[in-house]
Amino acid sequence: MTATQTSPVRSFDSLFIGGRWVSPSSDAVIEVINPITEEVIATVPDAQDADMDAAVAAAREAFDHGPWPRMTPAERAEAIGRIADELHARADELALVFAEEVGASKAFATLIQAGAETKLRDATTFHERFELETEVPIAGNRGRITHEPVGVVAAVIPWNGPVTTLAGKLAPSLAAGCTVVVKPAPDAPVGTMIFAEAIEAAGLPEGVVSILPGGREVGEHLVSNPDVDKVTFTGSTAAGKRIMSICSERIARVTLELGGKSAAIIADDIPFDQMLSGMVAAGIGHSGQVCAALTRVLVPRHRQQELLDALVPVIESMTVGDPREEGVVIGPLVAERQRERVEGYIEIGRQEGARVVIGGGRPAGLDRGYFVEPTVFADVTNDMRIAQEEIFGPVLCVIPFDDVEEAIAIANDSSYGLSGAVYAQDTELAERIARRIRTGQISINTWSLCPGTPFGGFKQSGLGREGGVEGYAGYLETKVIQYG
């Protein structure tokens, strides 16, 4: 299974198809590049169409004729718990791999890996919290509403949090009784292959789970397969639109968790020292490579300069560098193409007339690695591209407003609606504002991604929810049985 080893990232020479490690159909490989050093640190097989077809066939057979969908929910929950145990045993390794593959800091990597385990353990109780069968009267007769697994699931996951995103899709799918084919992004496949080892060790029936890294073309082949009943995708809105169009051809079920341009609304009554460090971390933590990041900072116009004066030292205190080192908060972007994208948006912001307060270039002394300085723009208007488009980098846009009504209008003036936050000492005011923001989740005087809650967005931030029993329901079909 394992071909070569570098510390801590391992190479793989096999694909995980139907619960077994098998030889790929070709000798094509994905080179995993460390964004800190720009060096190739591992290789994994680059799955081809034939490999995906084999995985879907295994999943179809396992769903149609295998034991997994026919086990009791409690039996499946016990198996999911074993996966969580195996993942826990690999937590340190996975955190190190996340730092090497994606450039995440130690603290962020540890937090993310813990979230993956939490999602799996939460799924072990879904069947206790969701009524799978209900007796109902129908036209004077006895009836029953039942919920059954949707079938074969194709899960396409991104690079910015591969293990926790995989857990968030796999856990409800398995709990529902589905079989799953996973396509990880080629930028960060090693963590998901270690996840496959955890699944193998947990001893699931044959055909239930496959994990095959590959690029966009093989991902499109997967979601186009007529034997796939549901697609769950996390990634860009543009890719989500493409997947949705493919699924529409056969009315395949689809869950989409897409982009965001979330707003942090700062009320007039709150001291900046009570909220600034947390807000900044929510905006540029993980180098801003988080779909729910608070990248638009809305502040009363008369407090904009006060905010900037307080913001600059917070940004300056965040050490940029090798995220494997103690004290480093901001690591590199995942790839050269991503750095070029972010630098392009920084130049667009300048051309649009926004003012760079801090950052805007590459950090001094970091000659290797895909680093960009944390950057803050001031005097941003919400019609600028840097305020409307997802940059996915360590860039904050400070947008002034004159009153609360304008702040709400600005926050909602977006094609996205994924996350957000309101900071105010008057918590009643904060809640009134929060309830009027068109977004899938919003925090008051804090910000976090809570693994046990439903996650998803309004508008072009996606369809459906992942997490909690609401996410579990997305992997079930509803059937009515009427008795005469």
Describe the protein in words.
The protein has helices at 49-65, 73-89, 91-102, 106-123, 126-129, 162-176, 190-202, 216-224, 237-248, 276-284, 304-316, 336-352, 385-388, 404-412, 427-436, 468-473; strands at residues 2-5, 10-12, 15-17, 20-22, 29-34, 39-45, 133-138, 141-149, 152-156, 179-183, 209-211, 230-234, 253-257, 262-266, 294-300, 355-358, 375-378, 395-401, 420-423, 443-444, 462-463, 476-482. By secondary structure, it is α/β, with parallel strands linked by helices. It folds into two domains: 2-258 and 461-482, 3-Layer(aba) Sandwich (Aldehyde Dehydrogenase, Chain A, domain 1), CATH 3.40.605.10; 262-450, Aldehyde Dehydrogenase, Chain A, domain 2, CATH 3.40.309. The protein contains 16 helices and 22 strands. The protein is globular and about 70 Å long. The longest helix is centred in the N-terminal third of the chain and has 18 residues, at 106-123. Helix 2 crosses helix 7 (190-202), helix 3 (91-102) packs across helix 4 and helix 4 runs parallel beside helix 6. The termini are far apart.
What are the defining features of this structure?
22 strands; Aldehyde Dehydrogenase, Chain A, domain 1; disordered N terminus; Aldehyde Dehydrogenase, Chain A, domain 2; six-stranded mixed beta sheet; 484 residues; globular; 2 domains; 38% helix; alpha/beta; single chain; seven-stranded mixed beta sheet
